[in-house]
Amino acid sequence: MDHGLTPITRIDSASRAQSTRRPGSPPPALPSEPPAALQAEYSAAARVIEDLAARQVNLHFEIDHATNRVHVQMLDSNGDVIREIPTKSLLDALSGGGLLIDQKG
Q1: How far is C-alpha 58 from the geometric centre of its chain's CA atoms?
Q2: Mean pLDDT across the stretch 22-50?
Q3: Number of neighbouring beta carbons within 10 Å of residue 88
Q4: What is the mean pLDDT of residues 93-98?
């Protein structure tokens, strides 16, 4: 079963030596299901996605290249921003593009 995940790991020389195989030999067999700990994380993520869909909330992800951080916007059914994580003002401050000013109103 393909889970669409690409592992991000550093391969050291010992691991690389173990993973080499002879040309023409079959590739190693992959497990048909992810490990139990990963299945639990998939289930938790699926519950959150279902809850957001029931509330008609969408998530928009983008990378802020100035700070190299992920910026998430929660949008309602009209496309209006409900919440930003982290806030745009924090990203501006981290990138040096502006001052972080507390606004009271």
Answers
A1: 15
A2: 85
A3: 13
A4: 61
Which amino acid appears at position 93 of this protein?
A
- pLDDT of the residue at 75: 92
Instruction: State the pTM of this model.
Output: 0.46
Torsion of CA 12, 17, 19, 22, to 10 degrees: 150
Alpha carbons 85 and 73: distance in angstroms, whole number: 6
73: nearest Cα among 83, 63, 65? 83
Going by the DSSP 8-state scheme, the letter that residue 28 receives in this structure is P
Contacts of 52 (CB under 8 A, 6+ apart): 58, 59
Residue in the structure block whose two tokens are 């299901």:
33
How far CA 37 is from CA of 3, 29, 41, 44, in Å, comes to: 14, 20, 7, 11
Q: CA of 90: how far to CAs of 62, 72, 86, 94, 105, in Å?
A: 15, 13, 6, 6, 19
Give the chain's largest Cα–Cα span: 70
Q: How much is the pLDDT for 68?
A: 82
